[in-house]
Amino acid sequence: MTETAPPAVPISGQVTLPDGRVELAPGTPPPSGPYANEDLLPVPAAGRTWTTYNFSALWVGMAHNTASWTLASGLIAVGMDWKQAVFTIALANLVVLVPMLLTGHAGPKYGIPFPVFARASFGVRGANLPAVVRALVACGWFGIQTWIGGEAIYFLAGKLIGDGWSDASHIGGYAWTMWLSFAIFWAIQVAIICRGMETIRRFENWAAPFVLVGAFVMLWWMSGKAGGVGPLFDQPSRLGWGGDFWKLFWPSLMGMIGFWSTLSLNIPDFTRYGRSQRAQTWGQALGLPTTMTLFAFLSVLVTSGSQAVYGQPVWDPVQLAAKTDNVVGLLYALVTVLVATLSVNIAANLVSPAFDFSNVAPRKVSFRAGALITAVLAVLIFPWKLYSDPQGYIFTWLGLVGGLLGTVAGILVADYWLLRRTRLDLTDLYRSGGRYWYAGGWNWRAVAAFLAGGVLAVGGADFDPLVDGRPIPALAPLADYGWAVGLCTSLLLYVGLTLARRPASR
């Protein structure tokens, strides 16, 4: 068994710069072999150039999207008022910011992506477990966002072409033209992927402000329909602030946390380009909570307005935009949805799983190939079922995602901060037989902590509408707190198992 704690002496083959960042020592050849490729190697310190502004802009681009909109508006649809919904989302983003910053620390310090970072705790081979779990979650998100983009095309074409498009015959519960729209939007994204990261970066530069302006335009339109902003604030909660609200609050909070629990794991994929720890810390702290809260505020006001105007909340912005008879306004609104969906889907749901799938077979799967694998699996996950209603979307999908990924976050934080005190050996992260090889490339302690945390987090969850019933009914009381249960269980168990037996000396 190789060691699981850092040595007290400097690690050979790497140097620590005055600002605390670490890179391979000059003259040291880059890692090679079956566990390394160009996309997974550490970024040299000179290549870590992202500033506070860059990280803040990244979050603006990722948060201003249709899924974020429906996240907030969905809370209105299940009975909250605007104050309760904004409070829930703001608190959730402050909570998830903590593991985001803790796991993000390894990025600017070592220049490594998430799957390589996970090798320190799970093992060089074992890191494929959390990487694949994270990648499959991203596939689900990519599919959901692609379905949203397809909806926008479908409604837009219906307004322009007429009833022949909108009232087409149904296949599998949806018009065949909706399936065609879904395929068209999927193909657009694949085309952007094939053009490479530079095209993606140029697209992201202008997408975020365009989307924010679109959100304010929708607010202006809805306030005009409602007769002013007053009715947007006046819609009462169906829950009050008593027991009914708090019963809904906790699973909603876990769902909101689950929304960004994916990024709380793979944020090193982005922070590895950070100029300093200060840049990633302030960039994320300024970008995530403020941006998400503002966008949530706009969303819940517009959804409250739709309740005042139409008698019931319309939580899907695509369907809400389709209610206007102004073709120019509709065109602008739906193009905004398309741009927003492209922006977040490519940045948040393709970059990371591409690295994750590349980590499974570094010598055979490139970053681009990993992105294409993601796009294909996104269709096979049936995203239209996940997005079919706010109840299933918030409590089933986001709750399960948050519970599982919370367990991984607990292990990463425990290993990197509590046990290793942020010290890693760059070379050993890419080779067999080193300190992160454990037993055959797997650290059974991390796997055990992941399984135990995962069972407690989601074992008692209601999987409807995916499947009927709860796998372990006795664990139902824990289901509303899945993310917290998974994170705390895996963190404590991993630390306990690691400290129970002192690591052997090298």
UniProtKB/TrEMBL annotation:
Belongs to the purine-cytosine permease (2.A.39) family. It is found in: Membrane. The chain crosses the membrane at residues 57-78, 85-106, 174-194, 206-223, 248-267, 288-310, 330-355, 367-387, 393-419, 440-461, 481-500. It is a multi-pass membrane protein. It holds the Pfam family Transp_cyt_pur. Keywords: Membrane, Transmembrane, Transmembrane helix. PANTHER family: NCS1 FAMILY PURINE/PYRIMIDINE TRANSPORTER, PURINE-URACIL PERMEASE NCS1. The keyword Plastid does not apply. This is NCS1 family nucleobase:cation symporter-1. CDD domains: SLC-NCS1sbd_YbbW-like (cd11485). The keyword Membrane applies. InterPro entries: NCS1 (IPR012681), Pur-cyt_permease (IPR001248), Uracil/uridine/allantoin_perm (IPR045225).
